[in-house]
Amino acid sequence: MTVRVDQMNATLIDALVPRADLARGIRAAAVVLITALTAAAAQVSIPLPFTPVPFTLQPMVVLLGGAALGSRLGMSSQVLYLLLGMAGLPVFAASPVLPQGIARLMGPTGGYLLSYPIAAFVTGWLAERRFDRRYLTSALAMAAGLTIIFAAGVSWLAWFAQPAHLGLAAALRTGLYPFVPADIIKIFLAAAVLPSVWKLTKP
Description:
Layout: H1 12-16, H2 20-43, H3 58-69, H4 71-86, H5 110-127, H6 135-159, H7 168-175, H8 180-190, H9 193-201
Helix pairs in contact: 2-3, 2-4, 3-4, 3-5, 3-6, 3-8, 4-5, 5-6, 6-7, 6-8
């Protein structure tokens, strides 16, 4: 694949869709694709006995989607995901105790879900500044987005989740510490994707 990219702040979608006459439709399709992948990743859900927050692959899709699409399109893909979930479509992680629909956003995982558009925007914003071109800076961009997800998720668990919030200490124990090792590994893996694809776009 050999695509010439002239924009210094181009994202991967700009490199892969250089023709202006094709850009709008393909960008819209890319947003829908990332939305669908986020919903699919939610179904790879592992309930954990010591926390109401399941383990899913969603954060990796959110961050990769943001980096590939850029700030505005990446955020749009996650806003669409939340709107579909709020409308009652079964796009949130399957759970025997957590409801689908808008009520899911009031529950213990609401903070994580509501942070997805912001995390995608920040990761995409950094990608627009070429953070996605090298492994180390790609990892930093992913880590920035993941930090937003954890900060929002833990804060929600601690002070806002319904029917009962947990307090900060319990929120950290149930919403942060168990997930950090696996998510660090996911960042190391995800950070290699964008630089590798960028290499394929060079003449």
